[in-house]
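Illustration: FERM domain-containing protein 5 isoform X2.
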Amino acid sequence: MLSRLMSGSSRSLEREYSCTVRLLDDSEYTCTIQRDAKGQYLFDLLCHHLNLLEKDYFGIRFVDPDKQRHWLEFTKSVVKQLRSQPPFTMCFRVKFYPADPAALKEEITRYLVFLQIKRDLYHGRLLCKTSDAALLAAYILQAEIGDYDPGKHPEGYSSKFQFFPKHSEKLEKKIAEIHKTELSGQTPATSELNFLRKAQTLETYGVDPHPCKDVSGNAAFLAFTPFGFVVLQGNKRVHFIKWNEVTKLKFEGKTFYLYEKKIILTYFAPTPEACKHLWKCGIENQAFYKLEKSSQVRTVSSSNLFFKGSRFRYSGRVAKEVMESSAKIKREPPEIHRAGMVPSRSCPSITHGPRLSSVPRTRRRAVHISIMEGLESLRDSAHSTPVRSSSHGDTFLPHVRSSRADSNERVAVIADEAYSPADSVLPTPVAEHSLELMLLSRQINGATCSIEEEKESEASTPTAAEVEALGGELRALCQGHGGPEQEQVNKFVLSVLRLLLVTMGLLFVLLLLLIILTESDLDIAFFRDIRQTPEFEQFHYQYFCPLRRWFACKIRSVVSLLIDT
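Result:
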């Protein structure tokens, strides 16, 4: 029986699992791993497949069975982290945006960062004013279809491709004009480099927004960038704190705390899991961008003085070490396989690799995703889906990095239209009604749909009963289990109870320690005086001595039993 169990255990340990990783160009890499394989093993396999040496900027993202996204930890088992049934599906994404992407050593690294920022532009995470948006889109066209050719590119050719959540005819003409007149002769590598240089100047470069609420219950987006911590609220950047000014990050339940030298910022995440993910992202970003050496990394705890909380330690190299290591790379530049963009008249989809999908103008939506493609896009950005851009592309972001130079400027206008968290608070959709939920969320939050949207969604509009049921679930999801004020009261009561329990426990321990020291043979005046009191003598003969004899008898019986066996 023992040999059978051992053989079964060894077979379990040797079991192989299939893993599929979705890359930045929407291709897939499939491999098999052992049950106890660490995240670092899978990541190294992937980087070897991509011929990538500057790999510290990237990571692997996955969504757990509770629809919460995570970054794969390289020091832990892949199977234990995913907690889902194989085959496993993950995504390869940029985890730490380079502070200066144009300074990256190898072209393959810049190309991968280019693909990531192109995704950010499409999903609305990278917001910009109209002139910048047109220039960025023109760089993408030049990089992927080459110079303008009247024979291949008829009038309105730029409208066949999707660069942003929303387009306007004016913006499309501007994109085509720049592509025709200003970018001729640029190679794909040059266009991608110019794209990165322009994107890096935008306020929302590197922003992966986490939806939260402030202490007043107002919606806000929290994000970590190469330059510091950012809070986006309404149409303003209400906080920008440089990394060297952040003294501590902490979370308790759904409450996230950021300590600066003078203030403490408090925000509430949708779920405790989302709050913990936010905290871990903050710890990793602060360590990566702030520290000089990885030897300075310390294990961080979310606990207070008396209670144990979550502990986390960043396990990678820091930005300065990565740059120093990149400077030492000496090899022939690896070949990059780029393919031109092929317009398609198919239904709206998301393609961020070497191709950009296109859709007819009459079928454009505020969010250009089908149900199946929306599954992947929101899974890629679950709990931090981008906000909607302006309706006709009139103004995406009238504020560039010039405001970042002023460290004292905490509030800056980032857009004419306020950020809407309606789509971002939704969990990763797994049901076939994901699109209806997104449209419904916009109706609940007062957002209007275009005529095209209404026509397209009319055929699949849920019934009144379904709308009411889904609306109730969505409101419950958005509002949580209570307002921030109620959560603060509950946390205060819990803190008081914890303090009382800790005080009582300390007093009990001190009492036991006093009894042991008094009953010992220590010849100290204080203990001699206690031993001579009638109360102590009564306690000694009536309670302590019988209890000591009972323990001694039990210990002897256990020892004799062990000897006999």
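Reading the tokens back as a structure: The first strand starts at residue 16 and ends at 22.
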